[in-house]
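[#protein-structures] MJ: dropping Lipocalin family protein here for a structure pass
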Amino acid sequence: MKKSIYIVLLLILSCSNNPEQFKQHITGYWEIEEVILKDGTKKQYTINETIDYIEINNDSVGFRKKLKPNFGGTYQTSKNQEQFIFKIENDSLNLYYSTPFAKWKETILKASNDKLQVINQNKDLYLYRRYTPITLD
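AK: finished. structure tokens for Lipocalin family protein:
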């Protein structure tokens, strides 16, 4: 009986970390909540001046753009955006960025309706929460 329960729990946990399912949650507005550096140093972000808009599509491509939210639900943005290609490799969802200045890879560790966890090549872990616009009534 205990073995059956263990197997069921293992299946549930492994299904919840399916990188194929992460794709459906990534597109949207995200703000950094915390960064944990490779050495264990933590940096909390209680107020963010900018947020990230990330968009992916079914053609294995996407982009990330920095936005500055305004009161009332609008955003200031530049024309700059970072293009990426996403691939599922070794049970991971990897984003491969390429700009005229650099190339790098990030791995999505978790993506849900309200949380996003990304680790970069330096082993720095970025914890995001879904952005909720600030509106004044």
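MJ: nice. The beta strands are 28-36, 42-44, 51-56, 61-69, 75-77, 82-89, 92-98, 103-111, 115-120, 125-130.
AK: one more thing. The domain at 2-130 is CATH 2.40.128.280 (Lipocalin).
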